[in-house]
Each structure stands twice: as structure tokens, then as C-alpha cells.
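DM from R.C. (forwarded with permission)

"hey, sorry to bug you on a friday — could you get me a structure for this? deadline for the figure draft is monday and I only need the backbone to look sensible"
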Amino acid sequence: MRRRLKHQPNADLYEFKRECLAEFEQLSEQGHIDLFYGDESGVSLLPCVPYAWQFADEQVVMPSERGGSVNCFALLSRENRIHRDLTEGTITAAWISERLDALSLSLSRLTVVVLDNASVHKKAVKERWAVWQERGLFVFFLPPYCPHLNIAEILLRRSCGASSSTSGCVPRTMPTRRRCITRSGRHWRRSARA
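My reply, with the result:
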């Protein structure tokens, strides 16, 4: 069984945004722009196990401990380029804005960053939009209820959710959790090429 969004996107808005995104993809493939998909995700030592089966004489457990989490904000391209930053703190609008501002200072051509409609994303963009556009950085917001259009959301969910299995480590300490995220990023880049 899979989870599914409660609401559906507006059909007209969805189609318009999907067409825009397809055009951005084409411009990126032709080398006219850089296109990045952005999202954030976190890894914690506190597992989320909504339901599990076990035999009457079997005890199934998942090791758990309280502790900090590692949060990752990443901008991923289809060419396997990545801009990412990790923090043990909360990812705020100001924190995201700083990362996008740094990106805007290092651009070699027009760049489009695709983000979902999270309030932290909208707030981060609101204050610096005009400055970034002058530098060649444009932010494109996906339609609401469309996480399947954001490759960063898909890859971060998979890599963080499967970080211990894909990288061969069980996160026990903050440095180990950082290595898990880094290794899983390499894993997904290799998988995308295959």
C-alpha cells in the first residue's frame, strides 16, 4: 500500500506548469540554461515504523535512540550535478536563501531552480527574487500537490530513507550520518547513469 496526496492539483495549472518544465528540460539539454531541482530532507536515529508483522514467538525491533538529525538541502540536475549543504539545525527560509544567494554569485549562465510550494521555499525566495534574477537565477515553483515532478524530492526521499542500506552503514553518530548522506548521493548518481 502506498500513501497518496489527499488533494489533486488544478488541472489547468498542472498542465501549464508541466509544459513550462518540459521547455526548461529541453533548454537544459541543449545547453542554453542550467536546470536544478531543489528540496530538503532529513535523517534521524528515531525510526518511523507505522506497522509491522511478526510471529507470536518472534520479537522484531528496530534500534532507536534520541539525538540530533542531519538535514540536507540539495539542488540536483539531470546531468548528475549537485549543490548540497548539510546542517544539524532546522532548515529555515533564511538558511535556504543564503544557499541560493551563494549559488547566484557563481553562475556561468542562466539557471532555473525548480522548487515545490513549501512555505519555507516561498519565504526564502520572496525577499531576494529581484536580486537573483539580475544575476541570472530564476526560481520556478511547481504546482501544488505534484511531488512527482521534482526529481530532487524523489532522490532525497530514497537516499535518506535508504541511506543505511545503500551505503552499508547504520547511522549511530552525527559524523556517521553525514557519511551516509554523502555515500548515498554517490550511489544515486551511479544509479542514474545505469
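R.C.: lifesaver. Residues 135 and 164 are 39 Å apart (CA to CA).
me: no worries. The chain has a mean pLDDT of 78.
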